[in-house]
Each structure stands twice: as structure tokens, then as C-alpha cells.
Design brief:
The complex is a heterodimer of chains A (288) and B (345).
Chain A: H1 2-25, H2 27-69, H3 73-78, H4 83-107, E1 112-116, E2 121-130, E3 133-143, E4 149-153, H5 161-167, H6 174-201, E5 206-210, E6 216-221, E7 230-235, E8 246-251, H7 260-271, H8 274-283
Antiparallel strand pairs in A: 1-2, 2-3, 3-4, 5-6, 6-7, 7-8
Helix pairs in contact in A: 2-4, 7-8
Chain B: H1 3-15, H2 18-28, H3 33-38, H4 45-59, H5 63-76, E1 83-91, H6 100-114, E2 118-124, E3 129-136, E4 149-154, E5 159-163, H7 170-180, E6 183-193, H8 196-203, H9 229-250, E7 260-267, H10 275-278, E8 284-291, H11 295-305, H12 314-323, E9 326-330
Helix pairs in contact in B: 1-4, 2-5, 6-7, 9-11
The chains are: A alpha+beta (288), B alpha+beta (345).
């Protein structure tokens, strides 16, 4: 009996000894384990957040489809949250519906027109947008009687409004006039936005010249490894386009503009918006 | 350093107010580090002037450097003196592709062809405005830097703003401008004011316009003293209407600060109680001038408070819509004016 229990105790003791030894052998592992545990916690929290977001979006989506189908009653009963939450979701769904509608209206070339002065005039709103962001809105008030005439507007003076009106014969085809004007205004907004982004995103590039119409842009590009700087001129002679009609490089090193890489840069600047083209050129290491 | 340069600097330093002197000289950047540190800008103006004159002698600055300083000061403080707006007419086909270097060269060469001795300095400001400083001389005398003309122009727009131009200099400047901007003619835009920024904003339409919309957002109303709630309720509708029409005519928010509007009337006298005047064949000539520290603001308030009838008469709304503050009104035909409306006030 004694022998058996002593064996049991001894084996217990030896087990404990092994355990104590192994605990001493892995003290650093404790810290690492703690760190990993904390990371796991954070990731789990993030996962819960994302799950909640997905859930909300799914509910929003369901609500939105039900709104579009205009049958709200059955869906609402599924919402067993408190009414504040569901009201908020309703508002959010309605908001997405309205902004999609406005976007579609803009895409199909629609203009916001309202009648003024008891039908004797109209006011047309022309929205401008570039790369998915809405920019300035311009307005035109037109007198309908006795003759179609532009009475008031907030279009800047460097857009030749009167000559555009004459060219597209505003009397007979007001739609073509509005389309041309919208084209000019959107292109202007696009060029203005590109200039703004070039200034914001590329602080190392100096804008040497620009003008209010954004029809010319001259940039000073720095070439790496101490080579001479390149003066880049972008001419936007077609005022209905956001992209330049001509790109020209000038450099002390006469060979540079004719090199195949810079010829590629030239076509890049002709085909992509300036701020993006410059990002690509920086990535490829042509400029700093 | 000769006497005229000294005098130029003295005059300029007298003109720049004490609180702006430090920043303007700093921007100029012509003082060496040691010199900059040796100037104590808290001293009284006369002492500062002496100090800067001494530094000027030391550095041997000429009129060219001093006019730089003057230009910096004027560009940063443009709302002084009297500015007049001009409009370029009949552009050539290549008018909209005139670029800065081309304009600068052409303007300088044309003006020096017209005037024997002239000193022209052109500078492009960050807001795309081209500033031109002209010191006029003639066949016998050197350019007079004490009385320069300043011209401001945005390329690709038809407007030019000028200050301090005599009638003798006007045709010369007009010619140079027309040729260098590739237009055929230039005319008076009938807009003047003390603040360059105001007349520029008015013509470039850089203020908050209000247009009729389907879903009008509530315009910021002036705080009215709470009088009688019944009156308020009655007047709420018409009041909002008046405000909307006033804002449509003049704009919302901060308006460009014009100081005056002048109407030159050449119309027949209309008052049936005064037979002698009405029987006259010739038109009754009269000039009506409205003056205010902020004319457009005052007119908008007149319309929104009901003092002026709404819809706003075209006589008043033409000021922002046409961008002018000088009108000649005759009885017949549109002329460079608007038709006279019957008003028995």
C-alpha cells in the first residue's frame, strides 16, 4: 500500500517538477501569447463591428427594394427593433433612392427647369460633375416671350455665352444650346478640378502658369538624379474637353523629350487626367 | 542713389500704413538677414523711414526695386483710389488662346511704340490676375514714377480694371490693350468703385446668386424684433416673398461693395400738376445718384423690407445683372440704358 501511494506521490512530484521546469523555459512566450491574445480580441471586436455594418446595410437594402416596389407593410413587420432605429433606416433608404434618382437624371442629360413669372420665363439649372463628385451648379433665367432671350445667369464671363447661343440657334433649338453649354461648363469644371488636385496632390510640382479658363497649364517637373528640370505645357484648346489637345516638353537636355520614355509620358498626359498621369509618372520614377 | 529715387521711397513709405509696413517689406524680400534684423518695426514711422532710406542707400536700390515694393503693397491692398471697368469687344479667333508670355511681350512692345518713355511692369498674381504698372513719360521726360497707372486683367475674360488714368493716357492704353489681347475695340463698362475686389466680383459673378428653385431652402432672415405675433403671422408670407425676390435681384450673403450708382435722366418731365415743365419740348435733364457704404446691400434691404416695391424694378436690378453703375435713361429706345418706367412717387 505504502509503496503504491509513494509511487503515486513521487510521480506527482516529478510531474510537477517537469511542469515547473517547462514554465521557466518559456517565460518570453508568455509576453508573446499576451500580445497575440490582445490582437485576437481587437480583431474579434472589429469582426463584430463589420458584422453589424453588414447587417445594417442588408436591412437598408431590403428596405430600399421594398420602397422601390412600393409595398412597405410586410417588410416593416420584420423590423423588430425600436421605432427610432427603423425610422432612421427608412430615412437613409429614402436618401439613397433620391440621390440615385438625381444621378440618373443627370446621366441621361436632364436639366432642372422650373417655370417662373407665371409661365413667361424659365430657370434652368446646369449641374457640373467630375470623377463622381458634384461641383458647381450654374443657373440661367430665360425669357420666353416675346422672343427667347437670356435674362439673368451666373455663368462666368470667360464662357462665351452669347456666341454659343447664336451658334446653336437658341430660338429654334434650345436643347442643343443647353447641351453645348453644359458640355463647356462640365469641361471647365473638370479642368478646374484637375488643376486643384494637381496642386493638392503634387506639392513638388510647381504650377508655372494657368488661367481662369484653365485652357493652359504649364508645370515644372523635377527629374530624379539631378538631371535638368522639364517644363511641361498642356494646351486645352478644345474647351469642351477635359483632356489636353497638345502636350509639349521643354528641357535643357534636348534629347530628353524625344526619348521613348518621355514620348510615352506625352501620350499618357494626353490620355489621362493630369493628376493621375503625374502619379503614374512618379511611380515609374520619371519624375520626383 | 539719386534724389528722385529717394523721394519715391519716401512717398511710398508715407503711403503704406505703419501696421502693414513690416509684412510688405518682408514680402519684398530685398533686405539681407542682417539688415532685416537691424530694423525695429515698433519705432515711429519717421524713424523707420529714415532707417529704410539708409538701407536703400547702402544697397544702392534704384526706382526699379522701389516700384516692386509699391506693386506688392498695391496688389495686397487694392481697395484704394477709384477703379474703372472697361470691356474688350469683338475678339479675334485666337483671342482665347492668348497666353501670359505672349500678352506681356505684346503689351510692352505696343505701349513702348506708342509712348516714347514708358516704364511697364507686369506681374501675375496667384488668383490669375495680371497686374500692370505703368509709369508714363513722354518724348522729353523720363517716366514719372510718382503717379503710376495700375491695370488689372484676367486673360480670357473681356474685363479690364484701371485706376489713375488721365484722359490723355486713355487712348494709348486702350490701343495697347486691344492689340495685345487680340480684340478689335474696348469700351467703357460704366462701372466704377473704390473697391477693386467689389467691381471685379460683380463682373466675374463671384458672389452668391439666388435663382428660383422648386424647393427653396430658407434664406437667412434678419432678426426682427418680436413685436405683435399677429402682425408677424400676417406678414410672414409676404415677407418671405419679398426676401426671395430681393435676393434673386441682388444676391445672397455678402454682396460686392459698391459705393454709388448714377442715373442720368434725359426724359420728358411728367407731372400733370406742373404745366410749365410738362409743356417744354426738350427733355428734362437730371442726375440721380444713390450713395452708400454698401449700395447693393442697402438696395436689397429696401426691397426685402418693402420700401422699394417688389418685383424689383429693372432700373435697380440692372446694377448687378448688367454689372454697371452708370446709366443714361432716355424716353425712347433701349440705347445704353433701360427704359423709363412710370412711377408716380
Amino acid at each position: 500500500m505504502e509503496g503504491a501511494s509513494t509511487k503515486g506521490v513521487l510521480s506527482q512530484l516529478s510531474l510537477l517538477e517537469v511542469q515547473a521546469r517547462s514554465r521557466k523555459a518559456h517565460p518570453q512566450q508568455r509576453g508573446r501569447v499576451k500580445q497575440l491574445r490582445a490582437e485576437a480580441e481587437a480583431l474579434m471586436v472589429q469582426r463584430e463591428q463589420l458584422k453589424a455594418e453588414i447587417q445594417t446595410l442588408q436591412r437598408l437594402q431590403k428596405l430600399r427594394t421594398s420602397m422601390d416596389k412600393q409595398c412597405t407593410h410586410e417588410e416593416e413587420e420584420e423590423m423588430d427593433e425600436d421605432s427610432e432605429d427603423s425610422q432612421l433606416l427608412q430615412l437613409m433608404a429614402r436618401h439613397t433612392q433620391l440621390s440615385d434618382l438625381l444621378h440618373a437624371h443627370h446621366l441621361i442629360g436632364g436639366y432642372n427647369v422650373i417655370k417662373t413669372r407665371q409661365g413667361k420665363g424659365v430657370c434652368v439649372s446646369l449641374a457640373t460633375a467630375y470623377e463622381g463628385a458634384y461641383l458647381d451648379t450654374y443657373n440661367l433665367e430665360l425669357d420666353l416671350k416675346p422672343k427667347l432671350k437670356i435674362s439673368r445667369h451666373n455663368i462666368p464671363p470667360f464662357i462665351p455665352l452669347n456666341s454659343l447661343a447664336e451658334q446653336s440657334s437658341i430660338q429654334t433649338n434650345i436643347r442643343s444650346f443647353l447641351d453645348t453649354l453644359s458640355c463647356h461648363l462640365n469641361a471647365l469644371a473638370g479642368r478646374q478640378q484637375q488643376l486643384k488636385l494637381v496642386k493638392e496632390q503634387h506639392k513638388s510640382i510647381e504650377v508655372m502658369e494657368s488661367n481662369v479658363l484653365c485652357s493652359i497649364l504649364v508645370l515644372m517637373l523635377t527629374v530624379p538624379r539631378g538631371k535638368p528640370a522639364v517644363l511641361c505645357t498642356l494646351d486645352y484648346t478644345d474647351h469642351t474637353r477635359c483632356l489636353p489637345t497638345r502636350v509639349h516638353f521643354e528641357c535643357e537636355d534636348k534629347e530628353l523629350p524625344d526619348s521613348p520614355e518621355w514620348k510615352k509620358n506625352c501620350s499618357l498626359l494626353m490620355e489621362t487626367p493630369a493628376h493621375n498621369a503625374l502619379i503614374t509618372m512618379k511611380k515609374m520614377g520619371y519624375i520626383v | 542713389m539719386d534724389e528722385s529715387t529717394r523721394r519715391l521711397l519716401q512717398r511710398l513709405l508715407r503711403r503704406i500704413p505703419a501696421q502693414l509696413l513690416r509684412s510688405t517689406v518682408d514680402k519684398w524680400g530685398r533686405l539681407s538677414v542682417a539688415q532685416w534684423q537691424s530694423v525695429d518695426f515698433t519705432q515711429p514711422k519717421w524713424a523707420l523711414t529714415e532707417k529704410l532710406l539708409a538701407i536703400c542707400e547702402e544697397n544702392e536700390w534704384t526706382a526699379k526695386h522701389i516700384t516692386e515694393l509699391e506693386m506688392i503693397y498695391v496688389i495686397d491692398n487694392p481697395n484704394q483710389g477709384m477703379w474703372y471697368a472697361f470691356q474688350l469687344m469683338d475678339p479675334e479667333d485666337d483671342a482665347h488662346s492668348v497666353e501670359l508670355t505672349q500678352f506681356k511681350e505684346q503689351f510692352k512692345s505696343h505701349l513702348s511704340e506708342l509712348v516714347r518713355h514708358v516704364s511697364v511692369k507686369i506681374k501675375k498674381h496667384t488668383d490669375e490676375a495680371v497686374w500692370i504698372r505703368i509709369a508714363w513719360g513722354d518724348s522729353y521726360s523720363r517716366p514719372n514714377h510718382l503717379n503710376p497707372t495700375y491695370v488689372v486683367h484676367h486673360l480670357q475674360t473681356p474685363y479690364v480694371f484701371v485706376t489713375n488714368l488721365t484722359s490723355k493716357q486713355k487712348p494709348l492704353l486702350s490701343q495697347a490693350l486691344v492689340l495685345s489681347t487680340r480684340h478689335h475695340a474696348i469700351k467703357d463698362a460704366n462701372l466704377s468703385g473704390r473697391k477693386l475686389t467689389a467691381i471685379r466680383d460683380l463682373l466675374m459673378r463671384q458672389y452668391q446668386h439666388v435663382f428660383p428653385t422648386k424647393y427653396p431652402s430658407p434664406l437667412a432672415e434678419i432678426n426682427q424684433t418680436a413685436s405683435n405675433p399677429r402682425i408677424e403671422r400676417e406678414q410672414a408670407g409676404p415677407g418671405a416673398n419679398r426676401l426671395q425676390m430681393a435676393c434673386e435681384a441682388f444676391g445672397d450673403g455678402m454682396l460686392p461693395q459698391l459705393q454709388s450708382a448714377v442715373y442720368k435722366l434725359e426724359t420728358k418731365f411728367r407731372d400733370h400738376t406742373n404745366k410749365t415743365m410738362t409743356e417744354r419740348a426738350e427733355p428734362f435733364k437730371c442726375v440721380v445718384k444713390f450713395a452708400s457704404t454698401n449700395l447693393l446691400e442697402s438696395l436689397r434691404h429696401c426691397a426685402s423690407s418693402g420700401i422699394a416695391s417688389t418685383p424689383v424694378t429693372p432700373l435697380l436690378s440692372s446694377i448687378p445683372v448688367k454689372g454697371r453703375n452708370y446709366f443714361v435713361i432716355t424716353d425712347n429706345g433701349p440705347s445704353p440704358s433701360s427704359q423709363m418706367h412710370e412711377s408716380h412717387n
